[in-house]
Amino acid sequence: MAAATECAEAPLDTAARRKLLQDLFGDEDESEDAPAPAWQPVDGVAGLFVWRAVLDDATQAALRAWLCKEGWFVVDEAGSAPDAAGPGVWTDVRPGSYNQGMFFGQLPAVLADAAAPLEAGIRALWAGFCGNASSDAARRPLFNQAIVNVYGPDGFIRPHVDLARFADGILVLSLGSAATMTFAPVAAGAATVAAAETEVAVALLPGDALWMCGPARYVWTHRIDRADSDVWPDGVRRVRRTRVSLTLRRLAETCADADSADGPAGGSVAG
To answer: How many domains is the chain partitioned into structurally?
Structure first.
């Protein structure tokens, strides 16, 4: 095993990420009136949205430094060559002494700062999606619980729906490496899901954000299968590295009806 070094920043190459997205979706209108990139719905899953490359270099560097300081991963002296891993991937980290941590109440400042630029868009998106009928869109704070999960290259997440003790609306920030998250309809809720037989795969790249509300949160399971590599949106298959998932949620007003399922050994029930 390679020796570990002190925590250090790594070049995140957001410019390369944005170029990749431009190559896929075309050049953005650079006029002052052009709308900023924002939440995009995921076809086939109502209430599921992704925001590509929303976390900039400074935000990812701050999160990386915090995660390393807290011991969730360590930095290896000999990292893998970045050209095979893809832009923005942390090729020099591996899981640390523990791979999961939870926070309740006031969230760590670095997490709150990362989520803050997304909050207004989430509230508008949510209110529009729910027809302004949901009081959740106006709740303060938007999140009061967070979970950090660090997955090695062989890490995976078993199919699950987040526990009922958490309210509607779940934000996932993905860092470190790419992974493919697959959504599948819950059998009991299949009648409410269009094309219920269809699974929907979403490629999560470093710096992406995922938002789940309504049907996506309650009647679709999500999982990440064990794999050595993932196909990125540009069609290139790249080796999977250590990935960090930061999941922000809100505790429900009552937990009386909360289900009680922890992830089976070897997996996780968090995104």
So the answer is: 1
Distance CA 155, CA 4 (A): 21
DSSP characters over 56-74: -HHHHHHHHHHHHHHTSEE
In this structure, is residue 237 part of a structural domain?
A: yes
| Sign of the alpha-carbon dihedral angle for 64, 65, 69, 74 | positive
Residue 19 located in a structural domain? no
What CATH number has the domain bearing residue 210?
2.60.120.590
DSSP character string of 211-251: EE-THHHHTEEEEE---SEEE-TTS-EEE---EEEEEEE-B
Range in 29-43, 59-73, 166-180 the model is least confident about: 29-43
Q: How far is CA 99 from CA 43, 135, 155, 170, in A?
A: 32, 34, 11, 20
Evaluated on CA atoms 155, 161, 164, 170, the torsion sign reads positive
| Domain range for 111 | 37-249
Look up residue 111 and give its two tokens: 């997490």
Degrees to nearest 5, angle at CA 249 with 253 and 142: 75
Region 116-132 average pLDDT: 80
Tokens of 255: 């937990």
> Among 86-100, 121-135, 141-155, 255-269, where is mean pLDDT lowest?
255-269
The owner of tokens 């508008």 is 124
**Residue 169: predicted pLDDT:** 92
Please report whether residue 60 resides in a domain: yes
Which residues, other chains included, contact 250 with Cβ-Cβ below 8 Å and sequence gap of 6+? 136, 139, 141, 142, 143, 144, 145, 166, 167, 169
Read off the tokens for 149.
């999960």
Domain assignment present for 157: yes
